[in-house]
Amino acid sequence: MAAVTGLTAHTLRWYERVGLIRPIARTSGGRRRYDEQDVGWVAFLLRLRETGMPVAQMREYADLRAQGPATTRARLAVLERHQAALREQIARLQSHDAALADKIAAYRDTLLGADSRVDGAAS
Known about the structure:
Blueprint: H1 2-5, H2 9-17, H3 36-50, H4 55-66, H5 72-122
């Protein structure tokens, strides 16, 4: 699982300990045996984490998921709230990107003007 997800074994154990991953079946030798569903679930958790979902909210979602289909509406609400927050963050980042682009353009214009003055004086 660590190789597939890029998470360390320590992180996977922590995810299990805090309730993000259900208790994993083990071999007779005590090694964890992850199945395809586990891989898909961890991939989804990583996606949530990469979009900035706090661990507490991920835990809330995982708890609802563990309760089964009766919690579908509640899980939908958690994801919709997160998506709304994510879209607000994206809008802020796009605004910051535009401001940086303007500042970079201003510096480039200043440098180009200085370069042309230096080139003109050398001629």
